[in-house]
Amino acid sequence: MKKNKTSSSSGGGGGGGGAEAAAAMRVIVPLQGVVQGRGGLVLGSVIPCALLYFIQLYFRSRGGGGGDGREKSPPAAEAEQSSPALQRVHSRTLLFSRGHAPPPHVSSRAAAIAQNCNGPYYAGLERAHDDPYDDVANPDGVIHLALSHNTLVSDLVGEWVADHCAESLFGQELNMSDVAAYQPFDGLMELKMATSRFMSWHTGKGRFFDPENIVLTSGAAPAVEMLVFSLADTGNAFLVPSPYCPDLDEVKWRTGVEFIPVPCRRTDAFAISINALDRAFNQAKNRRQKVRGIIISNPSNPAGVLHSREVLETLLDFATEKNIHIISIESVLASEEFVSMTEVAEDVDKTRVHIVHALSNDLSVPSLATEFIYTCNETVLASVKKLARFSSVSVPTQRVLTSMLSDTKFVGNAVKVTRERIRRMRAGLAHGLRKSGIECVGSDGGLYCWADMSPLIRSYSEKGEIEMFDRLLSVAKINAVPGCSCHSVELGWFGFCFASLREEDIDIVLRRIRTVSDAGRSPR
Amino acid sequence: MKKNKTSSSSGGGGGGGGAEAAAAMRVIVPLQGVVQGRGGLVLGSVIPCALLYFIQLYFRSRGGGGGDGREKSPPAAEAEQSSPALQRVHSRTLLFSRGHAPPPHVSSRAAAIAQNCNGPYYAGLERAHDDPYDDVANPDGVIHLALSHNTLVSDLVGEWVADHCAESLFGQELNMSDVAAYQPFDGLMELKMATSRFMSWHTGKGRFFDPENIVLTSGAAPAVEMLVFSLADTGNAFLVPSPYCPDLDEVKWRTGVEFIPVPCRRTDAFAISINALDRAFNQAKNRRQKVRGIIISNPSNPAGVLHSREVLETLLDFATEKNIHIISIESVLASEEFVSMTEVAEDVDKTRVHIVHALSNDLSVPSLATEFIYTCNETVLASVKKLARFSSVSVPTQRVLTSMLSDTKFVGNAVKVTRERIRRMRAGLAHGLRKSGIECVGSDGGLYCWADMSPLIRSYSEKGEIEMFDRLLSVAKINAVPGCSCHSVELGWFGFCFASLREEDIDIVLRRIRTVSDAGRSPR
């Protein structure tokens, strides 16, 4: 009985008023279940009855004394919000104390988002925004290595744009029928077709990707959010191998769906462990929490592990056995060896696999903020097409991307050059870090160096890790992603994204990190 | 007791599994309240206890026969999903019947969206998309008058773009620091500043609009959605004067918040009635439903009523008295007499007023899909800034808008010419309709003619209205907005948006409508 109570409170976290009512139900319902299992219909009703009695008794003795509702401590106010049973008492005290009008209500889910978005990761984003490095204008500014924005071939893009701007943009865009006609929110068919050819060429090894199954979105986060919204209800859960990109947590708060981090460990070179997934699934099941799927990124972000075909096949088997979905966030940049989850699912089961592809980021134009969903599940497709109106891409932006993708020679070269630069820059950064006593995992993909700074932290604890993060940010003026923001179980790991650096910046980055690593080592 | 049950079931509609648990709680909780009010702690527990007993008894007798869970009728399967108490039984039957794997779960909120988006309004959108009118290429296509896209001065925009394309677009956009730097998802400060000047000039009568209070979004629907998400939890409600734009219902399904239509009537020339708002508020209160605010559009959409300063002041007084919010969806196009809700709230109470402004639509570039939120409530601002990442605007699109807005001479002229054309086209369309025996309300704003076709419908019922809609769409090839899709209480009204027509198209539209109106009159 005690165990049930604990699990229900953790299960309800993060998810709005409805989630909280659901949590309240989850206190009562498993209890019923326990009793029901032993056949006791009567007991199954009497226990929640007693529970309700004592809850009422407790709050009567606490909040019902007729005083001013606003004098209550914040936790009490929160409890009222989370338990509809108690709102009545509250509204009555409010009626008595009109006069000084209280501020208008703000939703508990908005409050949760505001409250949750304030860890070291967000502090770093803010600093990088307020004081951005520029080799000429602000050479002492913060170098931002915590955002997986790829601009590695922006020089090539610049040349392409200079040649194609006039024809690709407003020229086409402004003919009347185009502007006036009803534009579907999920993207122009021209761009979907160009995207389908891009997929076929770079991730599909020539296979056909139906453009009808593509939905364009204004970013990867909204794409994942729409899928999670469509696959899971408030209070349901997804398994997410960790370390995972901190941005995913915003999807969690937005949808009210719980994300259960499933640790990948150094001893496995941060590969996905099916055993760990199975354990997490069963634990959730014991808590009576519905797991609706797994979210992976390929290559993993930030650890940069490229998942092999075998791993993906095992994952799909696992998902089929448990009857859950897989959301795979993919990028073709990592390597020629990249295998898409669509390829693995092709002849097995396409209805449970949903791809999010970072299109504009793959093309070195992250500021175009256009990514897409590819799904062969008709119900999910219908849902995300409807949701697309909440995250649509402007027509001129789609025109630019269509032109760019249609220039297959340019795209082929851009992808090739990006891969070469990724390899060189990762090698350069990892080599330099090693000289400072910082080992990176032998990552074969991704836009980050995932670096073990644990020998340099002053105490082997999360506090020590955050202290190192602060020193990197304030002393070295480097904004990295700390492991704790990625739900890493291993302490002292940091992600350094090199994809928006120029090659000549690597030395500056290494010099700055060295100031911290040298200082970190001396007191030991 | 019966009344409580009814209200709770209507309150829970539309909003995901959490909402359904909340609905379940709402069956129990008001009952408790009723009893509690008479002092009966014991009764307050015994009644829900009895209720739980009978619910269990009912479902045991119905679904617990040990058979295959998938053989159940759809309503039973749905009941399981909506009541966590019953999931346990279901999961057990699933375990027994592995083998033929059922399809993976899709969320109930996604199912609700797919199910809800299929009225006449959506049929019309689809037809207009599949068979769009073009005077040369497809002269028999559907003329789309159901979308408030404004392209009235796209000729002026075309000229402007021809002169400014090179400098405004990628030229600026592609300098390295701009692409690589961390771009806030809520919009570039340059665009916010240009927007603030635009507001000050066109809606603020010279007052200062703090650019820090602006959040840019990729459309009006996501802007309203972010505000509703931030102000209300699942199961809460907003009052929405009707007829209202059908798109708002998508916000309702997306957020799990209920929208209560508050009828505006022909006898009041479709003006907002504070009495009706008060009645709806009190009815919701009696159902123990929390009303969090009012959503208005100014001018109203589709009825086209421009709200006077007095009406807005009364609305704000009402919102203050009830301690709720106001979301006002505004456009400066209607008339020089337009008064913004910000102006009314200025010295009274700015924390409960939130503006959604259709920026790109006001500038005749709807395909740029860029609108904004303006709010002075710090908590709400913090929340929508975080949510903006799910609906961000690409940087080149923001650059175009910044350039355009900075050209104040162009913008001033564009707004002036748009207003002139609106007046002329509305007058032309309304005059022609009158000649066919169709009266429009004397609307003083907006992009629609709101027309009374009730004398022409074959039966004065919703069926008759939908039949007329079908004839308009299939016979006249005109896609209009039927009143029923706007929650209009008056029957037989239709919205015709003229803002994406050319003036010479008006005659074609009138000729087509006449075929239906003549046919409609003859059988009487």
Characterization of the model:
The structure is a homodimer of 524-residue chains. With 524 residues, the first copy, chain A, is of the alpha/beta class. Chain A has 3 domains: 2-66, no CATH class; 111-151 and 416-517, Aspartate Aminotransferase, domain 1; 174-412, 3-Layer(aba) Sandwich (Aspartate Aminotransferase, domain 2), CATH 3.40.640. In chain A, 51% of the residues lie in helices and 11% in strands. Chain A contains 22 helices and 13 strands. Chain A has helices at 2-11, 16-37, 41-63, 74-82, 87-96, 108-116, 120-130, 154-168, 170-173, 176-180, 189-202, 220-231, 247-255, 274-286, 309-322, 341-345, 359-362, 378-387, 395-406, 408-435, 462-474, 505-521, and strands spanning 143-144, 214-217, 237-242, 258-263, 291-298, 325-330, 353-357, 371-375, 439-440, 448-452, 478-479, 481-482, 493-497. In chain A, the strands form 3 sheets. A 7-stranded mixed beta sheet of chain A has the order 2-8-7-6-5-3-4, with helices on both faces. A 4-stranded antiparallel beta sheet of chain A has the order 9-10-13-12. In chain A, strand 6 (325-330), helix 16 and strand 7 form a beta-alpha-beta unit. In chain A, helix 12 crosses helix 18 (378-387). Chains A and B meet through helix 2, helix 3, helix 6, helix 7 and helix 8 of A and helix 2, helix 3, helix 6, helix 7 and helix 8 of B.
